[in-house]
Amino acid sequence: MTSYNLNTSITYLKGTGPSRADLLKKELGIRTFGDLINFFPRRYIDRTQFFKINQLQQNSSEIQIVGKITAIKTVQQKRGSRLVATFKDDTGIMELVWFRGAKWIKESLKINTPYVIFGKTNFFGNSFSMPHPEMELVSEYKRNLRGSMQPIYASTELLTNKGVSNRVIQKMMQSLFEQIGRNFKETLSKDILTKYELLPKSESLFNIHFPKNQELLTQAQQRLKFEELFFIQLQLIRKKLIRKSKIKGYTFLKVGTYFNSFYKNNLPFELTNAQKRVLKEIRKDIGSNAQMNRLLQGDVGSGKTIVALMSMLIAIDNGFQAAIMAPTEILATQHYNSVKELLNGMDVNVRLLTGSVKTKERRIIHEELESGELHILIGTHALIEDKVKFKNLGIAIIDEQHRFGVEQRSKLWRKNELPPHILVMTATPIPRTLAMSVYGDLDISVIDELPPGRKEIATAHRYDSNRLSVFKFMKEEIAKGKQVYVVYPLIKESEKMDYKDLMDGYESISREFPKPAYQVSIVHGKMKAEDKEYEMNRFLKKETQIMVATTVIEVGVNIPNASVMVIESAERFGLSQLHQLRGRVGRGADQSYCILMTSHKLSANAKTRLETMVKTSDGFEIADVDLKLRGPGNIMGKQQSGVLNLKIADVVSDTHILKNARETAFEVLQKDPSLKLPENTMLLQAYKNLHKNGEIWSNIS
Ligand code: ADP
Ligand code: MG
Question: What's the pTM value of the predicted model, to 2 decimals?
Answer without folding.
Answer: 0.68
